Amino acid sequence: MAETAELVTNVSDTARWVAAFRATESARPDALFHDPLADRVAGERGRAIAAHTPRLMLNGWNLVTRTKLIDDLILKTIADGCDRVVNMAAGMDTRPYRLDLPSEFPWIEADLPELVAEKNELLNGESPRCALTRTAVDLADPEVRGQFLDEALAGAQRALVLTEGLIYYLSDDDVISLAAALARPEIAWWALDVNNRAIVKRMSKATTELLANAPWQFGPVDPLGFFADLGWTADEVEPLASAAHRFHRLPWFMKPTTLFPQPDPRKPIENSWKPWSSVVRLTHG
């Protein structure tokens, strides 16, 4: 148990985990996306974490599906008039190097100083396809986060903020604080992945050893209702399980779940035992 727990020493290590599965997906002949830098940024630690992934996440189906859905959502949002992407807790994301983006499009990444320094070194010499800025900042500090947003959003009118793979590691109070911080006129959309209580309970049980140092926390019974109470409304919702089934990535033992009606995310999810996980795009006001 101790050896497994040491693979993920903190939340930042999960970024390497996701990158390892992006690399595996990119090597498939029917890949949903191609990320030539994924294996490099995953490194040995990322590959080791992936090797200890629980059966519930077989082949990283949920992480691969999430990546594809957010890829598509970002491009759709840019087509809808987005003038900037601010990727908070960007981890080892490499979208600025692989998505078809306008060369002058502003893309701002932010993460902890140690991770940013490592990423800069790993990607030294690589050229992004857009106007990329990478910022070292502790986003958990509200004052520092506010200063970062002031600088990152200067001149923006319809920005998209991305917090992929972040909020379920936060407490309810942390999510409330983040939602308030992002309720700014320069931000038109907020893209993130959300899980209800049933998913968080299952994942917490399955990853007790692996994520002992980075446990999942945030998982309300009705995630979209939680954000609606904070003034945020979902205008795009893509459930992971149905998308994974469509992409032929859903594990065989989970396919029977697609035979039953899926919860309507736009209505209150009253039954906490029904698992529900989605990529969503929120608007404020």
TrEMBL record:
It comes from the Bacteria. Its EC number is 2.1.1.-. Transmembrane segments: none annotated. InterPro entries: Ppm1/Ppm2/Tcmp, SAM-dependent_MTases_sf, SAM_mthyl_Trfase_ML2640-like. The keyword Cell cycle does not apply. One of its GO terms (molecular function) is methyltransferase activity. Exhibits S-adenosyl-L-methionine-dependent methyltransferase activity. Belongs to the UPF0677 family. This is S-adenosyl-L-methionine-dependent methyltransferase.
